[in-house]
């Protein structure tokens, strides 16, 4: 039976994400979902989810200081297990984070995480609430999703990717703000799919049934 793990490295409340992934796994008959901080469980996983809330440096330090870091890198980089980063979990895929200090990320998608600077000064930071996706590439995670569909964001920094082919979707917030990145078996979503109602749940289901 397929096993999906949500990594717990003490960087956010995982309750809503756990419930959303469990629900979609049941509906799609996509195996089991567990929240874990156990490296052995991560090593056995068929797919891996890395959530995250808070500041990039703190999340990066917590992840590298956790017992699951080496197992995560082994599973994703060397074994090609399907991976999904959510919010700061997506930002950690970058080469660098520029929040408070220059902090190295996982380096899985070249680019850097920088402050959101809307061209319209009336737009507030953090970027909080619903926004319309603009899909830039085809991907199985977008099955049943269209440009104009809404997802829910809460963030003050965004991922500027070095290779535009790795930005799969963006939203407009006084300029383009990266919404989804991806390469190989790796995906990242800046928004919270677990809080994005039907569209977010659809993308969770698509990830759980994705067979790259």
List the helices and strands and how they pair.
Blueprint lengths: L2 E5 L7 H14 L3 E5 L2 H6 L2 E4 L5 H9 L4 H10 L4 E4 L1 H4 L2 E4 L5 E2 L4 E7 L11 E6 L1 E2 L14 E6 L1 E5 L5 E6 L3 E8 L2 E4 L7 H13 L3
Parallel strand pairs: 1-2, 1-3, 3-4, 4-14, 5-7
Antiparallel strand pairs: 5-6, 7-11, 8-10, 9-12, 12-13, 13-14
Helix pairs in contact: 1-6
Description of the molecule:
By secondary structure, the chain is an alpha/beta fold. The chain has one domain: Class I glutamine amidotransferase (GATase) domain (Rossmann fold, 3-Layer(aba) Sandwich), CATH 3.40.50. It is built from six helices and 14 strands. Strand 12 and strand 13 form a beta hairpin. It starts with a strand and ends with a helix. The model has no long low-confidence stretch (mean pLDDT 97).
Can you give keywords for this protein?
single chain, 212 residues, alpha/beta, Rossmann fold, eight-stranded mixed sheet, four-stranded mixed sheet, 6 helices, 26% helix, 32% strand
CATH superfamily annotation: Class I glutamine amidotransferase (GATase) domain
Calculate the terminal CA-CA distance, rounded to whole Å: 17 Å
Task: Point out poorly predicted stretches.
Answer: none
Main beta sheet, described? 8 strands, mixed
Mean pLDDT: 97
Percent of residues in helices: 25-40%
Label the CATH architecture: 3-Layer(aba) Sandwich
Individual helix count: 6
CATH topological fold name: Rossmann fold
Using the CA coordinates, give the radius of gyration.
Answer: 16 Å
Give the strand order, joined by hyphens, for the main sheet.
2-1-3-4-14-13-12-9
| Topology order in helix (H) and strand (E) letters | EHEHEHHEHEEEEEEEEEEH
Please identify the structural class as seen in this structure. Answer: alpha/beta
Work out the strand percent: 25-35%
State the oligomer: single chain
In the CATH scheme, the class would be: Alpha Beta
